[in-house]
Every structure is written in C-alpha cells, then in structure tokens.
Amino acid sequence: xxxxxxxxxxxxxxxxxxxxxxxxxxxxxxxxxxxxxxxxxxxxxxxxxxxxxxxxxxxxxxxxxxxxxxxxxxxxxxxxxxxxxxxxxxxxxxxxxxxxxxxxxxxxxxxxxxxxxxxxxxxxxxxxxxxxxxxxxxxxxxxxxxxxxxxxxxxxxxxxxxxxxxxxxxxxxxxxxxxxxxxxxxxxxxxxxxxxxxxxxxxxxxxxxxxxxxxxxxxxxxxxxxxxxxxxxxxxxxxxxxxxxxxxxxxxxxxxxxxxxxxxxxxxxxxxxxxxxxxxxxxxxxxxxxxxxxxxxxxxxxxxxxxxxxxxxxxxxxxxxxxxxxxxxxxxxxxxxxxxxxxxxxx
Length: 347
Prior knowledge:
Layout: H1 14-20, H2 48-53, E1 57-61, H3 65-77, E2 81-85, H4 88-97, E3 102-106, H5 114-123, E4 132-136, H6 141-149, E5 154-157, H7 162-178, H8 191-202, E6 208-215, H9 217-224, H10 226-247, E7 253-258, E8 261-266, H11 271-285, H12 292-297, E9 299-303, E10 309-313, E11 316-323, H13 332-344
Parallel strand pairs: 1-2, 1-3, 3-4, 4-5
Antiparallel strand pairs: 6-8, 6-11, 7-8, 9-10
C-alpha cells in the first residue's frame, strides 16, 4: 500500500509559552460546597494554550506492521501520543493501563476480532466512553452496520486516505470533548458521563464515592508551568487506573471532576485499600515531577508579590470517602458535598 509523504510538523517556540505562562492562569471556579453541578460546562480553568500543549493519546490496533508503523509515525508527527497493539487482547490490556482518547481498531485481528474488542470496551464502565474508529478491508453494508451497532463512532476502509483518517480522528475527539465526555488532559470521563454515574449510585446499595484532590497543585502549576502540571494530571489518571485495577472491581468508575479533582466510584469493601494504595504511591512517585533542589529540601520556594518568600509543601493527595448507609442521602449534591467535607477533614 502506498501512502502520501508525511508532512513536517510545526513547532511553536517554547519562548512563546514561557512569556504566556503568567498571563493565562487558571480562574477559580464557583463552588457549591461540592464539585458537582446540575449542568457541567467546559472547565473554566482550561485555556487554549493548555489545549495546544496537551497531547491526545491514540491507540492503534492493527496486526499489519507496515500499516501500524506508518500510522504511529504519521500521528506522532501530528502531535499525538501514539501506542500500538497488534492483538485484541493486547489492546484491551493497554486500554485498561492508560486510557486513550481514541482507538483506531482493525476488525481482522489474529486472536479476537475488532467487533469483540469493541463489545468489551462498550460493556466496561471505565472504557465505554472511548471513541472507536473501525479500520478494515471490508466494505459490505452489513459489516459497517455491525460495527456501528456495537457502538463504533466511525468506519473507514482500506486503502484509506490518511488525511481523511486524520480528520475523522480529530472530529471524534473534538466531539467527545465538546459533549463533555472526557477531560482533554487526563483522558478520563468528565461532565455528563460523571453525572450519569453519580446518578446510578443513588439506586445502588453497595457503593463508595471517593473524592480525591491534589493538594498544592496550583503553586506547582504556577512555578513549573502548565505543561508540567498537565503531566501531573496524566500521572494521577494512570495511577488511579493501576490501583483500581489491582484493588477494585471491573465495574469501578474513575472520573475527572475538573482541575485537580478526581472521583472514584467503587464497592464499599474496596475503598479503604484503594485509598491507602493511592496515598502511598502518590507520595512516593510524585517526587519525579520536581527538580532536584525542590525534592531535596521538600518544598517549593515562591516569591510573593511583597517580596517575601513562601515555602509551599510538595504535592500530596487528599481523599474523602462516603458510602451507602453512612447518611440518609437525599440527592447527588448531598453525596458530593459530604465526600468533599470528608476529604477536607481527613488530614
């Protein structure tokens, strides 16, 4: 198969972003006790500059090495963070470990076919929101309908125009973000998806809601810049996925409530161990996000407007937990407010 030459990537000079660092700061969002709202707008703290620097993650599932390698090189050149899987089982494992923003999925795979991969993604709480574009040799109407019935977002046949595929990928990701389905930095469910899962726990008698917040995140962001701060959000998302995989259940939900706030919905019995593991691993692994001097002294030295120096502790994670039976909850707002209060008083 012959593909068009790869276009050269454009690079915005770092100096431009350095000058903009202090001009585009996160605006404080209005609070209603907890972080849940009746309607969830696009995050107020998200600027166009953060969007430019945040890499969307793609997972290419294709057993033909030439095609998968070409797609990896091309989309990496377009600014995407690209992973490749050659088998369906490998794709499911990589998706669980680090949620992609979109999956390009070949139907004909050596172990389980793309239809089955898509079915499993759609039936899992933590992966059901990920956009899927089918990539296949088949061009029969029945095959296209089968993929779309399983929940695929789009369908493109080989041989394909790579520029067309790029536009389909861009549109699918933009549509998901526009509908507040995922946070563009962490790749985790947000907005409407988060609200939907919160509504479900009201009807359940075995649940625990964990409210997680990265303490001292804002000073880190101001000192190190939003690129490094976005890396912390992605690290947090990956850490939560790994811990919930290890200590939780397959139906557990992980969401990004915006900014430095995250949510885990799990079984009541799983919550204590998840909380312990997250706090332990975060305190150990967050150190790699600091420079040597700050790691050694254990704080960030920030010069305030009046010229005095403030010592800001290194980041840690605060976690509040409420569960079924703790209180006579009337609605979602009460649940999220109690979880936020539990986090603030947890120490």
